[in-house]
């Protein structure tokens, strides 16, 4: 169709960047899966289905449904024998991450995961700054237990979290941070 | 409304039994969760949403969607620090469980889980016999790797699997089997 390589690169970058953090994590998880590094998936969006039609014997079509509030986080799986569980969020703020972005039962869920020996965390992208941080669940819970703030400042992420550097493959290499914290790796 | 206790018991039994194995596992998982024993959930059904309407500013309504083939198993979570992953199926057959009930990518998924150090298994209910079995992923993979049968016989479940006895609470106590196999518990 007469596209130059640069055109294709730009289009590809746009279509991938378009979906933001969620897409970046999904392609990172695919990379981990294909390379047999980890098995981590995003859970499907929870939906209440109220009407289904059957246009043919082999086809079911949802005619009415509603989004449900999720009771858990979006992502879970296994890495080096450990249970992995996290939520990923973007904010356009340049200074802090509003805690209203996370449901209280997602916090409760992460607490339980940590208590039962899993690795729970947040991935937060400050999209205006194009900076993505890993914040371990232990630090998050300590924050929530020791103050009543409605948001977590960027400086807290810088101090207690880890910047996940942009890479080509995998795009959001959060397992590298986990290697460092939980498996004695080097950043 | 004039119901006797026995009426209510029967109605309650019926409404719960109605949904079969899936419901029994869900209430068992709730029991595990409430009693802080394990954190295990059924994943939402994967759906492709093609049309959404917004009847009001705060309401989103799905107007068209389709069921997707799941790429993983239905249930996962954490128990005693271990990653848990399984699929649950019912069959009306009295003699064998047809392997066509499980998607090939669900088998692939369970293989990966086991390779990465997780506990993967099947729960199969022979509903006509009212017998529910735990079949560990290791046994399942050995079966699939050593023959070309299209189904797993009930006798194989009896020999290599574990009968999960009906209980009041939790109804399908599959973690008891896991205790025995993986944590040196007594059946």
Written account of the structure:
The structure is a homodimer of 187-residue chains. Chain A has helices at residues 5-18, 20-34, 104-115, 137-146, 154-160, 174-182; strands at residues 38-42, 47-56, 59-67, 75-79, 82-91, 96-98, 119-126, 131-136, 151-153, 162-163. With 187 residues, the first copy, chain A, is an alpha+beta fold. The first copy, chain A, has one domain (5-182): Trna Endonuclease, Chain: A, domain 1, CATH 3.40.1350. The longest helix of chain A has 15 residues, at 20-34. The model of chain A is unreliable at 1-18 (pLDDT under 50). Chains A and B meet through β1, β3, β4, β5 and α3 of A and β1, β3, β4, β5 and α3 of B. β3 (59-67) of chain A pairs antiparallel with β3 of chain B.
List the helices and strands and how they pair.
Two copies of one chain form a homodimer.
Chain A: H1 5-18, H2 20-34, E1 38-42, E2 47-56, E3 59-67, E4 75-79, E5 82-91, E6 96-98, H3 104-115, E7 119-126, E8 131-136, H4 137-146, E9 151-153, H5 154-160, E10 162-163, H6 174-182
Compute the gyration radius of chain A: what is it? 19 Å
CATH architecture of chain A: 3-Layer(aba) Sandwich
Spans of chain A with pLDDT under 50 lasting ≥5 residues? 1-18
Task: Report how far apart the termini of chain A are.
Answer: 43 Å
What percentage of the residues of chain A does DSSP assign to strands (E)? Answer: 25-35%
Strand order of the largest sheet of chain A: 1-4-5-7-8-10
Estimated structural class of chain A: alpha+beta
In total, the number of strands of chain A is 10
* Largest interface chains and counts: A-B, 38 and 38 residues
Helix content, binned percent of chain A: 25-40%
Overall pLDDT level of chain A: 90
Instruction: Quickly count the helices of chain A.
Output: 6
So what's the oligomer here?
Answer: homodimer
What's the CATH class label of chain A?
Answer: Alpha Beta
